[in-house]
Amino acid sequence: MKRTYESQQTCPIARSLDVLGDRWTMLLMRDLHNGHCRFADLLRSLDGISPNLLSARLKRLEEEGIVTRRLYSVHPPRAEYVLTEPGQAFKPVLDQITAWGSRFRPVETNGVS
Amino acid sequence: MKRTYESQQTCPIARSLDVLGDRWTMLLMRDLHNGHCRFADLLRSLDGISPNLLSARLKRLEEEGIVTRRLYSVHPPRAEYVLTEPGQAFKPVLDQITAWGSRFRPVETNGVS
Predict the structure, then answer these.
(1) In this complex, do A27 and B11 lie within 8 Å of one another by their Cβ atoms?
(2) For residue A102, which residues of chain B lie inside 8 Å, CB to CB?
(3) How far apart are alpha carbons A64 and A30 in whole angstroms?
(4) For chain A, how big is the Rg over CA atoms in Å?
(5) Which residue of A8, B26, B76, B89 sits 20 to 30 Å from the alpha carbon of B41, by its own alpha carbon?
(6) Which residues of B touch A43 (CB under 8 A)?
(7) Tens digits of per-residue pLDDT, B58-110?
(8) Which domain holds residue A58?
């Protein structure tokens, strides 16, 4: 399951990216930090992700202790996802990526509406 | 070439990850920040990457204005790669990932030497 670079595992960056280095996972972390916690909300905010992929990414984050899953309805069963302490502590990474992207990756205006 | 999530392009995180979201690219940025600038050095420090993949990643960073390529020997032709201002400005992202990984992704000790 884990995508590692075995000889890189002494590096905390490589170990972080093993869990969170996937693009959709980073965007999922962004949306969890933005307060989206229900599957349907996340599916909407992550426009373009498939339900299966979202489900797999959430499961992996749960296995890695980055989110916890909580049922908020039993009939029908519906879950919400809440960031754990490690999950919350990832915010400075997202903030720095946001700052960098805002500064150095301006929105492309290519005439497509 | 760009791996985008079209509807995500209003987000600076998504735009950053389009360029730097690949795991090897992040590790390459780490090593460039650590002062490795020659192809052979990078190939060594990124133990596990293939020369072709390293070459492709460097080319992409050059195209995106994140590194510049400079010949330091003409016979034989040998290049070194230097971070531009946008490349240097990525350091806080790496620092935050390092901090998170050091705290929440301790080295696994699984008995494999």
Answers:
(1) yes
(2) 12
(3) 17
(4) 16
(5) B89
(6) none
(7) 999 999 999 999 998 889 888 899 999 999 999 999 999 999 999 999 887 66
(8) 9-98
